[in-house]
C-alpha cells in the first residue's frame, strides 16, 4: 500500500512554482497576484482562505484578501467582482463557496471574467474542460489528477467510481477521468443520492473517488482488493479533547481501508493541500496568459 502524500507533493509543487516566480522577478516581470473574496465568517472557510493567502506568500505571489460581512447583498458582491475583473494588477481571483443564502451563487460565478477564473467554475471554463480545450481545471480535481500522475497510478481502462456529483468535485472529476490521455481513459460511473445498489457498484471499482462529506462512509468490506482510494471528504467533528475543539476526518475508514488498498490518500494531508497547490498553479498560468496577450 502506498500513501498518496498530498502534503509532500503539494510542497514540491509549491517549490517548483517558487522557482518560476523567482525567474519572473529576475527578469523584472510582474509576479502573479491572486485575490480571494470571502463573504461571512464561517470557520472552515476562513481557514481555507487563510491557507491560500499564506501559500501565496510562500511561493512569492502577491495576494489580496477581500473580506465582506455576512450581510453583503448580491449586488455588492457583483460590484466587487467587477472591480477585480477590471483591476489589471489581479491575475486571478476566487470567490470562496458556500455563499450566504441571500446571494445567488450561479449569478456570481457567471460574473467572474473567465480569464481570471482560477477556480475554473465559470461555464466557459467548465465547457472547455469537458471539450479537452486548454483552460483552468478546478483545483481539487486538478490536484487529484496531479497526485495520480506523480505516483504513476494507471488509470487507462480502469473502472473509476466517483461518489457525489457536486459542481466543484464530483462532476468535473467524472469528466476528467473519462477524457483521453493520462490520467484519464477510465470508464467512469458517477454515483449520487439516487444511485441504486451503490455498494455493489463501489465493489467493482478499481479507483474510488469519494466526495461525499460523510465520515466513515467508505468501509473496507466495500472496496475490492488493491483498489485506489481517493478521499475528498473533509468533515470537522467537534471534540473537546482537541486543542482546536474539533478534529478533521474524511469519508474513508482509513485504518481498515488502507490495509486493502493499493494507493490511498489520507485526511488531512491528502487532497486538501493539493487543492491549494493547484490553485497557485492556475494563478501562475493566468499570469503567463495575461503576459502573452499584451
Ligand atoms: N471557490 C472555492 N474554491 C475552492 O477551492 C473551495 C471553496 N470555494 N470552498 C471550500 C472548498 C474546500 N477547499 C479546501 C481547500 C483546502 C483544504 C485543506 O488544506 N485541508 C487540509 C486541512 C485543513 C484544515 O485544518 O481544515 C488537509 O486536508 O490536510 C481543504 C478544503 C477548497 N474549496
UniProtKB/TrEMBL annotation:
Residues engaged in binding NADP(+): 164-166, 234
SUPFAM superfamilies the record matches: Aminoacid dehydrogenase-like, N-terminal domain, NAD(P)-binding Rossmann-fold domains
Pathway noted in the entry: One-carbon metabolism; tetrahydrofolate interconversion
CDD domains: NAD_bind_m-THF_DH_Cyclohyd (cd01080)
Catalytic activity: (6R)-5,10-methenyltetrahydrofolate + H2O = (6R)-10-formyltetrahydrofolate + H(+); (6R)-5,10-methylene-5,6,7,8-tetrahydrofolate + NADP(+) = (6R)-5,10-methenyltetrahydrofolate + NADPH
Keyword NADP: yes
EC number: 1.5.1.5, 3.5.4.9
Pfam families for the chain: THF_DHG_CYH, THF_DHG_CYH_C
Domain Tetrahydrofolate dehydrogenase/cyclohydrolase NAD(P)-binding stretches: 138-290
Ranges where the Tetrahydrofolate dehydrogenase/cyclohydrolase catalytic domain occurs: 4-119
Keywords: Amino-acid biosynthesis, Histidine biosynthesis, Hydrolase, Methionine biosynthesis, Multifunctional enzyme, NADP, One-carbon metabolism, Oxidoreductase, Purine biosynthesis
Quaternary structure note: Homodimer.
Its biological purpose: Catalyzes the oxidation of 5,10-methylenetetrahydrofolate to 5,10-methenyltetrahydrofolate and then the hydrolysis of 5,10-methenyltetrahydrofolate to 10-formyltetrahydrofolate.
Family membership noted in the UniProt record: Belongs to the tetrahydrofolate dehydrogenase/cyclohydrolase family.
Protein name per UniProt: Bifunctional protein FolD
Amino acid at each position: 500500500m502506498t500513501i498518496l502524500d498530498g502534503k509532500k507533493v503539494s510542497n514540491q509543487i509549491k517549490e517548483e512554482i517558487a522557482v518560476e516566480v523567482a525567474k519572473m522577478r529576475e527578469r523584472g516581470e510582474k509576479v502573479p497576484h491572486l485575490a480571494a473574496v470571502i463573504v461571512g465568517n464561517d470557520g472552515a472557510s476562513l481557514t481555507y482562505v487563510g491557507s491560500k493567502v499564506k501559500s501565496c506568500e510562500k511561493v512569492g505571489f502577491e495576494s489580496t484578501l477581500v473580506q465582506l460581512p455576512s450581510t453583503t447583498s448580491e449586488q455588492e458582491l457583483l460590484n466587487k467582482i467587477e472591480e477585480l475583473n477590471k483591476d489589471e494588477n489581479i491575475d486571478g481571483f476566487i470567490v470562496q463557496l458556500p455563499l450566504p443564502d441571500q446571494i445567488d451563487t450561479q449569478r456570481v460565478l457567471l460574473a467572474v471574467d473567465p480569464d481570471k477564473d482560477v477556480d475554473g467554475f465559470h461555464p466557459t471554463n467548465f465547457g472547455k474542460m469537458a471539450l479537452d480545450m486548454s483552460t483552468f481545471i478546478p483545483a481539487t480535481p486538478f490536484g487529484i489528477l496531479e497526485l495520480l500522475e506523480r505516483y504513476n497510478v494507471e488509470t487507462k481502462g480502469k473502472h473509476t467510481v466517483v461518489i457525489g456529483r457536486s459542481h466543484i468535485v464530483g462532476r468535473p472529476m467524472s469528466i476528467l477521468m473519462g477524457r483521453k490521455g493520462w490520467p484519464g481513459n477510465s470508464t467512469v460511473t458517477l454515483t449520487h443520492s439516487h444511485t441504486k445498489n451503490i455498494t455493489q457498484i463501489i465493489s467493482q471499482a478499481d479507483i474510488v473517488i469519494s466526495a461525499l462529506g460523510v465520515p466513515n462512509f467508505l468501509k473496507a468490506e466495500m472496496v475490492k482488493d488493491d483498489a485506489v482510494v481517493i478521499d475528498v471528504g473533509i468533515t470537522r467533528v467537534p471534540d473537546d479533547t482537541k486543542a482546536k475543539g474539533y478534529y478533521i476526518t474524511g469519508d474513508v475508514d482509513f485504518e481498515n481501508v488502507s490495509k486493502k488498498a493499493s494507493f490511498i490518500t489520507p485526511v488531512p494531508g491528502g487532497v486538501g493541500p493539493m487543492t491549494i497547490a493547484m490553485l497557485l498553479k492556475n494563478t501562475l498560468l493566468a499570469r503567463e496568459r495575461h503576459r502573452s496577450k499584451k
